[in-house]
Every structure is written in structure tokens, then in C-alpha cells.
Amino acid sequence: MLTTLPAPVQSRVNRFYAARWDEEWGGRHMLHGRRKPPGAVHVDSNDYLMLAGDARVTGAMRQVLTSDVKLASGVFLHGEHPQLRLENDLASLMDAPAGVLCQSGWEANIGLLQAICDTDTPFYIDYLAHMSLWHGAKLAGAQIHPFHHNDLDHLATLVADHGPGVIAVDSIYSTNGSRAPLTALCAVAADSGSMLVVDESHSLGLEGPDGAGIVVEENLADRVHFRTASLSKAFGGRAGFITAPDRRFAEYFKMESYPAIFSSTLQPHDIAGLGAALTVIRDAEPLRTRLRDVSRCIREELQDLEFDLEDSDSHIIPVLGGPPDRTMAVRDLLEEYGVFGSVFCAPATSRDRALVRLSLHAALTDHEVERILESCRAVRDALGARPPVRLRRAS
After folding, report:
1. What CA dihedral angle connects 11, 17, 22 and 23, to 10 degrees?
2. CA–CA separation, 342 vs 331, rounded Å?
3. Angle at which helices 182-192 and 152-162 pack, to 10 degrees?
4. I want to staple 110 with a disulfide (CB 3.0 to 4.6 A). Which of 136, 168, 272, 350 is the partner?
């Protein structure tokens, strides 16, 4: 077994530890705080409806654990295969003509952009859009033109300069919980002859009728060309999904997208779990209502405490840290009060705007909500509600 790395690789590892671990982080791990004690408030998961451990979901998965498994590319599936049925059911939920399941939301975005972009394609992306969209465009060789977060004037200027192409946004942005102005984006796309891609990873299952997502909620299903989603959020599973404008595109994608061609199908227990989660989600309006109520309550209280929530309008709430040392101090104080969020730092954010993300879920009790607010009051009193120097938004 090799015990040393080639010098160029070892140099990169050493630079990471010197520049980030030692200098930026002060010899501590930026993402790892204290161990969670019994009774801790968990707001560090994307399991927004708490379905990953739901007995209806886990029971469906157990029933098929001994099923025959066909590990091959999805292009080989036909007939009444469970994965194809699930694709149809998800497309029906999202009011789409067809859809394709992928191994993850990351692969869904990369595969889609490979299938619709090339070196001649101008690609317009919101600065806060998920890294998988950036990476997919880069792999496709597209001409990448970022626009300021939710700034439609900047987007329109770029499109006027570079011509029609593909516009990519998140319906709810994963770092700060803000929402994309989808109706206005549809108008820009239609007026310029561009395609619009909306990543609904953090809204599918939570917004719209039966959890169909924000695009359906805003009656835009026939104006958005493609929607993608990671099913590791509200669905509590492991997969990605792409809506397709018709079945011809779905078959084209399976034959042309490298992640689709060179990845195996989902396993039977994954398909069964996602199918059961879909059934639960369709009838989960009480859970969605609870999550909306909890989220609104916490957002309003934190705004009264003068926290800058960066236009969060969802269940994702950022507690801005700023530089690493202050962010870790925020994390430590929250955890001292038994509240465990997720630290987001570079490359998930720019280096000067690290934050602790509170990912709220529908099972939070009123007592846990009060503990979250108490911990944030402690942050305000000890460190201030905002970083000392107002952070410049990503642009």
C-alpha cells in the first residue's frame, strides 16, 4: 500500500491545512462543533418533513430488500419497471409530461446541462444558484454569465449583450432561503427566447398543491422548460429528478447524458422508499402548514432582533457569521444552548460570508422553537445580531 502522495498532491493537502485549518480556522474544524447531547434541537438536516425515518417509508423499503436487483443504466429499463412508474408518478405530481430519475440532484443538474448546452450556449446563472448548475455548465463548455442575486435588470442586460441561452436559478436558495422571482424570470426567458431551468430541491414536497413545488404553485409549469430536484430533502431519500417537456426528451436524455448512461439505476429499496414518501407527501398538508408557521414565527422574531436574514422567505434561515472566527463563535454559542445548525463556508459561500444555516423542519415543537429563539438572543447579546462590517452580497 502506498504511504505517500506524489509531491504536487501532497503540496495541495499541505496548503489546505496551512491556509484554512491553521490560519483561517485557528486549528479547529470549521464544520464540527461539540457532540450533540440528548435533547438537542436538530436544525442541521434537509429532512424537512422528517420522512427519512417514517415507518411508512422504512416499511416500504424493508419489503423489497430481498428483491431482484438489476444494476444497469436506466436506458435499459422498459415495460412496468418500478423506476419507470415512479418517474411517471413524480411527473404527475409536478404537472409535467414526463420525467427522469437520476442517482442524485447533482447528477440531474450536470446531466441536464450537458444535454441542453454546448460551447455556443450563453448560460445565465444566479450567483447563489447551486454549485451543481455551475459545474454542469462548465462541463458542457457553455459561456457562463453570472447575474446578481435575483437582479432581473442585470440578467436582462446580460441577455441583451450575449443573446438567448439558458437561464438557471433555484426556486429556494440553499444558503439563505430566499426565493427566485419566477414569474418575472419566465417573462425574461420568453421575451429573449431563452430556456429556463429551475432547481426545486428545497421547495418540492413543501410548496404548492400536494407539495408539487413553487413552479406549479405559481401556475408556471407550462412556462418553465425544465425543473430539477434532489430527492434527499423533503423526500428523505437518495435520487434526483428532472422534468421533461415530452417523452422524446426523456429518452434522448437517457441516451445522451453521461450521468444517465454511466450510472446504474436506483436500487429497489430506494425506489420503494421514494414511492412511499410521495404518497405521504401528497397528503402532508398539515406538516407543510406547521413548517410554514414555525418558519414564519422564527423569521419574524429574528428580524425583530435585527438579524439580517438576507431576504429568507422559507424554512431555511441564515445566521450570518462573516469571517471564520466569528462564525465558529456563533456556532459554539448556539450549540451551548443545545441548538445545532449547519456551518456553511467556502466553497458553499464566499470566504467573507460564512454562516450557520438553520434548516427548520415540521416536527419542531413550540418548546424547541423557543430554544432556537433563546439561542439567537444569546448570539445577539454576546456577538451582535450582524457581523461588525456589513457583508457585501454575492454579486
Report:
1. 60
2. 8
3. 20
4. 136
* CATH code of the region 56-282: 3.40.640.10
Residue identified by cell 408518478 is: 89
What angle is formed at CA 359 by the lines to CA 356 and CA 360, rounded to 5 degrees?
135
Half-sphere exposure (CA, 13 Å, Cβ side) for 288?
20
Q: How far apart are CA 242 and CA 225, in angstroms?
A: 11
Alpha-carbon distance 103 to 61, whole Å? 17
State whether residue 230 is helix, strand or coil: strand
DSSP letter for each residue of 282-324 = HT-HHHHHHHHHHHHHHHHHHHHTT---TT--SSEEEEEEESH
The residue extents of the domains of the chain are: 26-49+285-383, 56-282
Q: What is the pLDDT along the chain (395 residues), one digit of tens a residue?
A: 567 889 999 999 999 999 888 888 899 998 899 999 999 999 999 999 999 999 999 999 999 988 776 676 777 677 788 899 999 999 999 999 999 999 999 999 999 999 999 999 999 999 999 999 999 999 999 999 999 999 999 999 999 999 999 999 999 999 999 999 999 999 999 999 999 999 999 999 999 999 999 999 999 999 999 999 999 999 999 999 999 999 999 999 999 999 888 888 899 999 999 999 999 999 999 999 999 999 999 999 999 999 999 999 999 999 999 999 999 999 999 999 999 999 999 888 888 889 999 999 999 999 999 999 999 999 999 999 999 865 444 43
CATH number of 26-49+285-383: 3.90.1150.10
Amino acid identity, residue 337? Y
Residue in the block written with cell 447524458: 257
Grid cell, residue 213, equals 413545488
Q: In the sheet where 354-359 sits, what is the strand order?
A: 316-322, 354-359, 342-344
